[in-house]
């Protein structure tokens, strides 16, 4: 199977060609990071306009780099949601137009399924497995017993992990996006500030990060009032340590509870160097087969959408031309 994937859910315009669900032939990503940085976050209208400007050329480039003619494609897969509705619409419209003109199936893909399938591009998934999804909008533990079969074991009750990173970074006056900045700063500091970990009920696989975010806010506020100096590298290290403690322990608990042998890391926060190191160490100790995407497949890209789309296509999950973008599309129906 030759699948073209299209992803425009947030601030990356991306198109990719994947063969057989695993073989990455091209993955063109046009990031809008520089455009949004001066606003301190993604501005939806600006993102949509930029997607419109870029999408045609990015699709063209993905086909060229793959050395694939559009008539050779088996289907066009596109992120239907979740994400910014205006941004999603650009990808959905482009995919519809292409699928219609080629007479090929249009395959809708859930963005988080994509993040999970990024791992499949490195080595085929082996089921059953647990995926720890940590991104800008999601923090979830997902159980899969086969392709396209998603069960939710737990999720965040408030902020997503990436959102917490970005908000705390903003508090520390670091530029957008904050996750990579905190990651970098944390390497230079020690986790010396005491910050809370939200374990919730014992045995719970849910998460909560808003208390931690408030604790950092209070700490900064109090220090400012008392005119005390804050050691920002130590604060970054302390915050990251608190997030990772919970992520790693809950992921290990999910693996134990379900008795699986494979753990996947997925989503933008998978790029975090501390998380990669700590999870690798724990999984080595516990003899769990851990998969972590390479950095370029951690954040938003169309290759992961093409990979996930391949199995939707093989299952015959096609959409017709009435397909609409869905900002709140659920992974589990
Ligand atoms: P979702 O996938 O939930 O729809 P999204 O697509 O906006 O949200 P991603 O692009 O998957 O999110 O990931 C972006 C998030 O990852 C941001 O919150 C960013 O700060 C975070 N992130 C990226 N790199 C790192 C890092 N090295 N350490 C921590 N967080 C990181
Ligand atoms: Mg992004
Ligand atoms: Fe994402």
Automatic annotation (TrEMBL):
Its cofactor is Fe(2+). It is found in: Cytoplasm. SUPFAM superfamilies: Actin-like ATPase domain. Binds 1 Fe(2+) ion per subunit. GO terms for biological process: tRNA threonylcarbamoyladenosine modification. Its EC number is 2.3.1.234. Residues 23-306 form the Gcp-like domain. GO terms for molecular function: iron ion binding; tRNA N(6)-L-threonylcarbamoyladenine synthase activity. Its main location: cytoplasm. One of its GO terms (cellular component) is cytoplasm. Keywords: Acyltransferase, Cytoplasm, Iron, Metal-binding, Transferase, tRNA processing. It comes from the Bacteria. Belongs to the KAE1 / TsaD family. This is tRNA N6-adenosine threonylcarbamoyltransferase.
């Amino acid at each position: 199977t030759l699948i073209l994937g299209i992803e425009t859910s947030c601030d990356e315009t991306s198109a990719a060609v994947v063969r057989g669900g695993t073989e990455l032939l091209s993955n063109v990503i046009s990031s809008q990071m520089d455009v949004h940085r001066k606003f301190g976050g993604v501005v939806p209208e600006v993102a949509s306009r930029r997607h419109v400007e870029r999408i045609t050329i990015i699709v063209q480039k993905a086909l060229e780099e793959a050395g694939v003619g559009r008539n050779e494609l088996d289907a066009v897969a596109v992120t239907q949601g979740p994400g910014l509705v205006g941004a999603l619409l650009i990808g959905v419209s482009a995919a519809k137009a292409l699928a219609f003109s080629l007479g090929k199936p249009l395959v809708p893909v859930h963005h988080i399924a994509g993040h999970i399938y990024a791992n499949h591009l490195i080595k085929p998934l082996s089921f059953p497995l647990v995926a720890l999804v940590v991104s800008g909008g999601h923090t979830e533990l997902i159980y899969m017993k086969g392709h396209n079969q998603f069960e939710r074991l737990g999720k965040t009750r408030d902020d997503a992990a990436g959102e917490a990173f970005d908000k705390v970074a903003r508090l520390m006056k670091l530029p957008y996006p904050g996750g990579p900045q905190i990651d970098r700063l944390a390497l230079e500091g020690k986790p010396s500030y005491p910050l809370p970990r939200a374990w919730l009920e014992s045995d719970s696989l849910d998460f909560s990060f808003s208390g931690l975010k408030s604790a950092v806010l209070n700490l900064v506020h109090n220090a400012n009032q008392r005119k005390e100096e804050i050691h920002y590298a130590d604060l970054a290290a302390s915050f990251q340590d608190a997030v990772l403690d919970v992520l790693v322990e809950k992921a290990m608990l999910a693996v134990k509870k379900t008795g699986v042998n494979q753990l996947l890391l997925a989503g933008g926060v998978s790029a975090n160097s501390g998380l990669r190191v700590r999870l690798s160490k724990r999984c080595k100790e516990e003899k769990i087969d851990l998969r972590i995407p390479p950095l370029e497949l951690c954040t938003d890209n169309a290759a992961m959408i093409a990979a996930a789309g391949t199995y939707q296509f093989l299952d015959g999950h096609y959409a017709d031309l009435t397909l609409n973008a869905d900002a709140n599309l659920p992974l589990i129906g």
